[in-house]
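Feature request, filed as a ticket because there's no other form

It would be nice if the structure record came with a short human-readable summary line next to the tokens. Right now we just get the raw output. Example of a typical job, pasted below so the devs can see what we mean:
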Amino acid sequence: MSTRGVAVITGGASGIGEATAKRLAADGFAVAIADVNEPAGMAAAAAIGGGARFYACDVADAASVDAAAARVEKEMGPARVLVTSAGIIPNTEGVMDMDMEAHDRMWAVNYKGTVHCARAFARQMIPHKTGAIVTLGSINSRLPLPIPAYNMGKAAIERLTQILAVELGRHGIRVNSVGPTYVMTPPLRARVQSGQRDLNKIMAVHALDRLPEPADIADGIAFLCSEAARSITGVLLPIDAGFLAAVSYRTYAGGMPWKE
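Raw output as currently delivered:
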């Protein structure tokens, strides 16, 4: 039986979202998994147990989000926590030759999907004067990278998070973001295995000799949702294995003071 209320996790059928759903369930939340992948979402909810439920939802479609939000509130109660984990991962491309249809789809899912979900579930939190929202940002929002739609979209999510933190703060709702680096999720592992990503190059621009696992991101999200973070809002928490610190240090033209 939940003692902490309802936690809604979009994109909760796999990867970071699934790990977050498991972690928040372990922390005492009743978990609602919202995802377009019905078989995986139902399997994830069944694996978590304890009353976890799956809700079919396309975050790019505001009507779909509103309908899912209404069902969650009716069947489980108002959301106490929202984690916007649903998103699309890109491949490298340049602005001049990028696929604009894919660009628009990424903005529809990653950015507009975050807006749709924040609006729908914050409305459930406002009357109760409490709540926590965690958006899925990225550490690459701090640097220009050759993944234009994703890069700019994540920068927009960081700014959206700050704006929401101010607008919803007067209602007792905290809004923060996590900024992962590459995370060893099934999609990244598939890209490495197919040759679309070079693991050696990825590791070369991090301070730590490991990449985060989905559970590492879930731990950071759980902290931001907890009472321990009661005075934290409007921030992006890097969970990046030292990427932000290392990327400029390791590429300094004068060289590093030691040899690898």
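Something like this underneath would help us a lot:
Strands lie at 6-10, 30-35, 53-56, 79-84, 131-136, 173-180, 236-239.
The mean pLDDT is 94.
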